[in-house]
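Please decode residue identities from the backbone states below.
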């Protein structure tokens, strides 16, 4: 019934049906007995009431849909503005960062020279210069992410063994995980078909999700990476952790640029936003869920064959 009412014949029926019933009632009323007129009148009133109620509901739904589309448009405009602004800032910052990094390197070379390397009173200075170099490198990484966020990422598509790729990333983080008593668990589906995607970009997504999961666990927990098929033409990669989870208020914000729940100085808020951008380029999706008391789950879904843009 519902699809019929959304069609053009259905809308005509809603407009003309009650009117026809009213005309029929007026035409037949003189020849019908009293009980017949009563039944016809009730049927007419019911039809009119139902039609008015349905049309009122459609009006409310249309307004809600208009509001939702307006909010999505505003959000997309904000994202575009953020991309342009961050790109400009990153370019402006890169030049002084390069100068600072070069000067810090020259200072460190001077402090490590033969004449000064044995002077213990300069150890604090050496450590300070090393910290300058470290923080400059961190700033470079942030500006690189900002530029990547605004730059169009061109995917180099090739057939990829998703389970093998996920295992490469799991092995990459496993050494650090052991130091924190975190167990990396695997649950790979057997005989997955190859996926036409960009393995370099997909590695970046999985590595980011694994690092985030380990940071959420902290220590004494586990991170599980899984692969399976969600449909005949869709492959899914899942990263689960046993951390504290994500609050419902933050769940809708975690893919926004610069949003982070980490303490100041420990997160840029660009990692998940980059993952979202990459998945859009690859024609896939990324979603997050956090059932109460069960940590967090991130699902990456990719089509077996990427559709042409």
């Amino acid at each position: 019934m519902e699809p019929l009412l959304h069609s053009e014949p259905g809308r005509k029926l809603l407009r003309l049906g009650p009117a026809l019933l009213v005309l029929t009632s007026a035409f037949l009323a003189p020849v019908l007995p009293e009980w017949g007129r009563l039944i016809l009148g009730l049927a007419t009133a019911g039809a009119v009431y139902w039609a008015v109620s349905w049309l009122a509901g459609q009006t409310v739904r249309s307004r809600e849909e208009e509001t939702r589309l307006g909010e999505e448009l505003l959000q997309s405009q904000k994202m575009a503005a953020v991309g342009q602004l961050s790109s400009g800032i990153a370019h402006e910052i890169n030049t002084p960062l390069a100068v600072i990094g070069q000067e810090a390197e020259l200072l460190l070379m001077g402090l490590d020279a033969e004449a000064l390397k044995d002077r213990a009173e300069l150890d604090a200075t050496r450590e300070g210069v090393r910290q300058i170099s470290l923080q400059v490198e961190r700033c470079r990484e942030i500006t690189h992410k900002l530029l990547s966020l605004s730059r169009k990422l061109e995917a180099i598509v090739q057939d990829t063994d998703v389970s093998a790729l996920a295992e490469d990333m799991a092995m990459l983080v496993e050494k650090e995980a052991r130091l924190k008593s975190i167990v990396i668990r695997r649950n790979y589906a057997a005989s997955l078909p190859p996926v036409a995607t960009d393995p370099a970009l997909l590695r970046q997504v999985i590595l980011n999700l694994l690092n985030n999961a380990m940071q959420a666990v902290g220590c004494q927990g586990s991170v599980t990476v899984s692969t399976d098929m969600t449909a005949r033409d869709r492959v899914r990669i899942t990263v689960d952790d046993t951390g504290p989870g994500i609050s419902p208020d933050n769940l809708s914000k975690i893919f926004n640029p610069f949003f982070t729940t980490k303490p100041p100085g420990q997160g840029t808020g660009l990692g998940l936003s980059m993952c979202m951008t990459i998945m859009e380029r690859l024609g896939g999706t990324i979603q997050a869920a956090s059932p109460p008391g069960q940590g967090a789950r991130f699902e990456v879904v990719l089509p077996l064959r990427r559709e042409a843009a």
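Observation: Strands lie at 158-160, 182-188, 195-197, 221-231, 234-241, 285-289, 297-303.
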